[in-house]
Write a structure and sequence with these properties.
361 residues; two-stranded antiparallel sheet; 6 strands; mainly alpha; single chain
Length: 361
């Protein structure tokens, strides 16, 4: 890097990440299973996008904390809560086995830890084993079933949610070890270490995704015959930055990120489903049937990648078409509200694709 390039980088830190603004540069990528819905009388999606913007009054995201039934000891305690909450913000593929949404399961498990007096530091998380996670987050590991040959005898049988608990433990322990390697007592210490140098979303995103396996979320995309490019989606870390902005910025101005408008929609389970329901993206008949049959997808498979990539593509097109009126963080919040409204009375009413082999979402 030349001295001029270095100076330019220092004066414009907002260009540090832009992880998904490169999406449209992948013009050579041709989807096979997921398509942006086109107008019947035109070759573009402009009409569908215009109709969406007219029908949906997307509100600007406010620095308004989420009401919780807990009292934090200090700002650092609050930061730790939101960091662990977003690190654990995965498992949508296990939704069919849970009585509540997986998001609520993770949220109220952490609320329980706070109510039990935990400061949510690295050691607190290292102390959680499978049983403790199961009890804290109310996720069953096993169920009693009759023995195959012995009458009157019942034995424990593993439930599918046991895998979810094991993934949670892996993510928690990996992050706790990484914090301890940096001699950081907790996530708050790690974030402040970076914020003092650069308080942009881009800087924090780079730090978190490069150091913590649980925040990584990227694909190897084949472009052309012999070329492969990395495409980061990074939904969890973007969600974290958004929630730090809304929940912590009033306590500490360091979290009033100057590049908050660069964040995109966080593409987890509910978002593709609501976009499909809104007729903004279309699935091939085979893909539609697979989702209806609840057959799991492998993270990184062509179908799973297209579901997320094309969802993100249409969201970026909506933001662009709004001409500055709607930011990615605003659209993200709006789409999640729409998804929650559909799921209010029946979680299964919104058909989400299932992916159980990832901690990315």
């Amino acid at each position: 890097m030349t001295s001029n390039q270095t100076a330019q980088s220092n004066t414009n830190p907002h260009t540090d990440f832009l992880p998904l603004k490169t999406l449209h540069s992948h013009t050579r990528f041709t989807p096979q299973h997921v398509f942006i819905t086109r107008d019947h009388k035109a070759s573009s999606a402009s009409g569908k996008i215009k109709e969406f913007l007219q029908k949906n009054k997307v509100q600007r995201l406010k620095m308004q904390p989420v009401p919780l039934p807990i009292q934090f000891d200090n700002t650092e305690h609050k930061i730790n809560f939101w960091c662990w909450k977003n690190l654990l913000d995965f498992g949508s593929g296990y939704q069919i086995y849970l009585k509540e949404s997986v998001g609520r399961v993770m949220l109220y498990g952490l609320v329980h830890l706070v109510l039990s007096g935990k400061s949510l530091n690295a050691q607190d998380m290292m102390d959680l084993d499978d049983f403790a996670i199961s009890q804290t987050f109310r996720i069953d590991l096993t169920k009693e079933v009759p023995h195959e040959t012995l009458t009157g005898v019942r034995v424990d049988q593993d439930l599918p949610t046991k895998k979810l608990v094991q993934l949670m433990k892996r993510v928690l322990h990996d992050a706790a070890r990484k914090l301890q390697e940096y001699q950081c007592e907790d996530f708050a210490s790690f974030l402040y270490m970076h914020l003092k140098r650069n308080n942009t979303c881009g800087s924090l995103m780079k730090a978190l995704t490069s150091e913590f396996e649980g925040f990584k979320d990227e694909y190897d995309v084949k472009i052309g015959k012999d070329t492969t490019e990395k495409l980061p989606i990074n939904s969890k870390v973007q969600s974290l930055l958004k929630e730090l902005y809304t929940n912590v910025a009033n306590d500490d101005e360091m979290f009033r990120f100057p590049d908050i408008e660069q964040l995109t929609v966080c593409i987890s389970g509910p978002i593709p489903a609501i976009l499909n329901r809104l007729n903004l993206i279309e699935y091939s008949p085979e893909l539609q049937q697979r989702i209806a049959d609840r057959r799991p997808f492998r993270y990184g498979s062509q179908e799973e990648f297209e579901i997320r990539k094309m969802s993100l593509e249409i969201c970026e097109m909506i933001v662009e078409a709004s001409k500055g009126q709607v930011r990615g963080v605003d659209l993200d919040h709006h789409l999640y509200k729409l998804a929650k409204a559909v799921q209010k009375d029946d979680l299964d009413s919104l058909k989400m694709h299932i992916c159980q082999d990832t901690t990315a979402y």
